[in-house]
């Protein structure tokens, strides 16, 4: 079994423990290369010390020792010894490349933080450092192995830090580093990171649980030994060679189980798990049958990770049995090769060069890294990238099948939308429905283990903003956001051009009058990179169209045009009442209800076609359309620079949400009768809220979908025909 004991530095020669480990698997020439890297790092760090007071060189040596325990190659060991010289000692990447080669220099640079870039917040700096590490990791996976070893030794020696810093680093370890170790299958490092982080983050809980486990250990020792003896004896009877061992579950895993199930420690009975290691896969399944004949298996608790490995390459049979003392017993059955991969994960590629399990673990890791590159290619800032990485580090998975029988692993809670994007980004962007186990289902449907999923697509379909509330994979979330941003940019740019043209009309001019090059110098003046970005900012309310219009017109032209426009407006107002604003003829913006992100209908008053409406420019949202009597706009009425003339398009189509409140006599079946009358008026119910009953009457609020005010009036008339209805009214605000 792979063990990662804390390194005890030897003051006379800190490199001695490392040299011992390296001699166990590397030739003498490569051990000497490690010595050269150590001497260079020791010289670079000089008299530098850690917060504990020990020479700083002890830290890189300890990191290199952890990698040597994993039996990584000499380049990784050299990079571990040098991993802080760029960041702390001012040594350049070029100097490392000249002394130790480009391969080592790339590894050291990948692990180093961004020292020369200034960030506004610690979170932004940390997110950018993580992005750099992940991208370097996608080029060479050894970068993250060095970083994990670095974090592990820092966690081992964190006692001298302040409590606040210990908590912050521990939270980061649980959120990022331990899940990465899990994702890469390096269980030895993952378990120790979790245990150390838990002990620093919640020291009281850690001590209380540790003491409780120690107290229970004596009572259950006999039970563990008896189960081991029963299984071992039965294997001997069947002439099967295998190693049976019982182990105590880790404190953090017990704590997570208590939290997930809401149980006290006294209700957790499976404190021990048993592992059976045999020589080949066939024997694994034979042993499974043997243990099932010894103890009764619990329904639904068997998992075959040999036939369907986890995404990190892990393979084993898991079963839970009812033990001889009436408590559940967890048993894992695997081969020796599977056990090595379970402990070392992707690091087994360097430790054991042969074996299908090693190749599978590495292939799965590289597939994950490829997904990281796809996330990066989608754009977005560092914190969004880090958020997507966290989403992609789910430990629990479901396994589903494509129509051709290919297996895809997705995080627990994944929907058909996640599946569509896992197949291909274009499939996700054009998805309209799903067929799950040969039955049609909505795209929001949650997937279960073993589901066969087929995605129905349409050329005219596109991602919906609501999908962001149901997807759990980083690829789906990033792809949806990228597509929506593109749509938003195009629509905002079109709306911005329209608004600017109307503002110019108010000054007696237009974009057509100014010519094609009118906006050429404006983006720079407003801090934008292009005319498209400038117009999109106008459409989204970041720049007021009137301000930009004044910038486009010379001062003398503005005065002359205003006078001309005012005279023209006085002449035309008699012919076109209500169509003149600010002294010029201005066509209102037509609202179709399907404009998308730059134009939205206010949720407070829920305007529908037929309502008198007003448009208000809101920064970051574009134009928000309200009814003219909406309570929320009273205080804004004086801000004429933000108002936009709008009216419904005569050809407006579609369904619009509106809220109505019905007061009815309390009684059996009243809700069903009201719903039937709404449906009879060709309206759909989107939401129902029932107020607590107070005496003889009940208030029920419906959000329904109607075409316009005429349709709403028909619904209300239909409801008033019910004898039990005392009041029907539309709700605004």
Automatic annotation (TrEMBL):
Top-level taxon of origin: Bacteria
All copies of domain HD, residue ranges: 56-155
All residue ranges annotated as the TGS domain in the record: 396-457
InterPro entries linked: ACT-like_dom_sf (IPR045865), ACT_dom (IPR002912), Beta-grasp_dom_sf (IPR012675), HD/PDEase_dom (IPR003607), HD_domain (IPR006674), NT_sf (IPR043519), RelA/Spo_fam (IPR004811), RelA/SpoT_AH_RIS (IPR045600)
SMART domains documented for this protein: HDc (SM00471), RelA_SpoT (SM00954)
Keyword annotations from UniProtKB, A to Z: Hydrolase, Kinase, Transferase
Bilayer-crossing regions: none
One Pfam family of this chain: TGS
Entry's Gene Ontology molecular function annotations: GTP diphosphokinase activity; guanosine-3',5'-bis(diphosphate) 3'-diphosphatase activity; kinase activity
Keyword Hydrolase: yes
Single GO biological process annotation from the record: guanosine tetraphosphate metabolic process
Family the UniProt entry places it in: Belongs to the relA/spoT family.
Role, per record: In eubacteria ppGpp (guanosine 3'-diphosphate 5'-diphosphate) is a mediator of the stringent response that coordinates a variety of cellular activities in response to changes in nutritional abundance.
NCBIfam families associated with the record: spoT_relA
Protein name: GTP pyrophosphokinase, (P)ppGpp synthetase II / Guanosine-3',5'-bis(Diphosphate) 3'-pyrophosphohydrolase
Organism, scientific name: Acidithiobacillus caldus (strain ATCC 51756 / DSM 8584 / KU)
Lineage of the organism: Bacteria, Pseudomonadati, Pseudomonadota, Acidithiobacillia, Acidithiobacillales
């Amino acid at each position: 079994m792979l063990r990662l004991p804390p390194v005890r530095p030897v003051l006379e020669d800190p490199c001695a423990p490392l040299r011992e480990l390296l001699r166990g698997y590397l030739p003498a020439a490569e051990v000497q290369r490690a010595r050269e890297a150590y001497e260079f790092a020791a010289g670079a760090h000089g008299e530098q010390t850690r917060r504990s007071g020990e020479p700083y060189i002890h830290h890189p040596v300890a990191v290199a020792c952890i990698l040597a325990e994993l039996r990584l190659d000499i380049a990784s060991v050299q990079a571990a010894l040098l991993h802080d010289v760029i960041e702390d000692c001012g040594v350049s990447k070029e100097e490392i490349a000249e002394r130790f080669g480009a391969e080592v220099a790339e590894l050291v640079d990948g692990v180093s933080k961004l020292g020369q870039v200034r960030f506004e917040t610690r979170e932004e700096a940390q997110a950018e450092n993580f992005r750099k590490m992940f991208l370097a990791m996608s080029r060479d996976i050894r970068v993250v192995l060095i970083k994990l070893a670095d974090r592990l030794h820092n966690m081992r020696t964190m006692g001298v830090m302040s409590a606040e810093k210990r908590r912050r680093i521990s939270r980061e370890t649980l959120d990022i580093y331990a899940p990465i170790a899990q994702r890469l299958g390096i269980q030895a490092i993952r378990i120790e990171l979790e245990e150390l982080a838990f002990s620093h983050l919640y020291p009281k809980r850690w001590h209380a649980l540790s003491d409780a486990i120690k107290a229970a250990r004596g009572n259950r020792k006999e039970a563990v030994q008896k189960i081991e003896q029963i299984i071992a004896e039965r294997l001997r009877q069947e002439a099967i060679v295998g190693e049976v061992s019982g182990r105590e579950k880790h404190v953090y895993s017990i704590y997570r189980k208590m939290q997930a199930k809401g149980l006290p420690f006294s209700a957790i009975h499976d404190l021990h798990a048993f592992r059976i290691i045999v020589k080949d896969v066939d024997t694994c399944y034979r042993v499974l049958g043997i243990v099932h004949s010894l103890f009764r298996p619990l329904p639904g608790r068997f998992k075959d990770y040999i036939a369907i490995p986890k995404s990190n390459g892990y393979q084993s049979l898991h079963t839970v049995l009812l033990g001889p003392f009436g408590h559940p017993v967890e048993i894992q059955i695997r081969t020796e090769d599977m056990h090595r991969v379970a402990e070392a994960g992707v690091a087994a590629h360097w430790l054991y060069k042969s074996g299908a399990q090693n190749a599978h673990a590495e292939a799965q890791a590289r597939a994950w890294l490829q997904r990281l590159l796809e996330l990066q290619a989608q754009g977005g800032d560092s914190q969004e990238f880090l958020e997507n990485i966290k989403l992609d580090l789910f430990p629990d998975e479901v396994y589903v099948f494509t129509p051709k029988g290919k297996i895809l692993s997705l995080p627990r809670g994944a929907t058909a939308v996640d599946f569509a994007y896992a197949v291909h980004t274009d499939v996700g962007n054009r998805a309209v429905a799903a067929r799950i186990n040969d039955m049609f289902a909505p795209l929001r449907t949650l997937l279960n283990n073993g589901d066969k999923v087929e995605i129905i697509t349409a050329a005219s379909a596109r991602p919906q903003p609501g999908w962001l509330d149901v997807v759990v994979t980083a690829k789906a979330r990033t792809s949806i956001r990228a597509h929506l941003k593109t749509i938003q940019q195009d629509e905002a740019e079109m709306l911005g051009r329209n608004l600017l043209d109307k503002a110019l009309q108010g000054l007696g001019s237009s974009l057509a009058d100014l010519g094609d090059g009118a906006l050429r110098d404006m983006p720079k003046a407003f801090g934008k990179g292009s005319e498209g970005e400038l117009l999109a900012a106008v459409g989204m309310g970041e720049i007021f169209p009137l301000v930009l219009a004044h910038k486009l017109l010379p001062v003398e032209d503005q005065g002359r045009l205003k006078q001309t426009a005012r005279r023209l407006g006085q002449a035309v107002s008699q012919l076109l009442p209500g169509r003149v604003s600010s002294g010029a003829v201005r066509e209102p913006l037509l609202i179709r209800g399907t404009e998308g992100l730059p134009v939205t209908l206010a949720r407070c008053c829920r305007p529908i076609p037929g309502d008198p409406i007003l448009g208000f420019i809101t920064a970051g949202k574009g134009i928000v359309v309200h009814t003219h009597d909406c309570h929320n706009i009273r205080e804004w009425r004086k801000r004429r620079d933000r108002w936009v003339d709008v009216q419904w398009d005569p050809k407006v189509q579609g369904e619009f949400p509106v809220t109505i409140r019905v007061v009815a006599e309390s009684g059996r079946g009243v809700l069903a009768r009201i719903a039937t009358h709404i449906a009879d008026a060709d309206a759909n119910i989107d939401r129902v809220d029932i107020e607590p009953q107070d005496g003889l009457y009940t208030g029920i609020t419906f959000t329904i979908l109607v075409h316009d005010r005429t349709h709403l009036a028909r619904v209300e008339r239909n409801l008033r025909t019910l004898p039990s209805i005392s009041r029907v009214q539309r709700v605004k605000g």
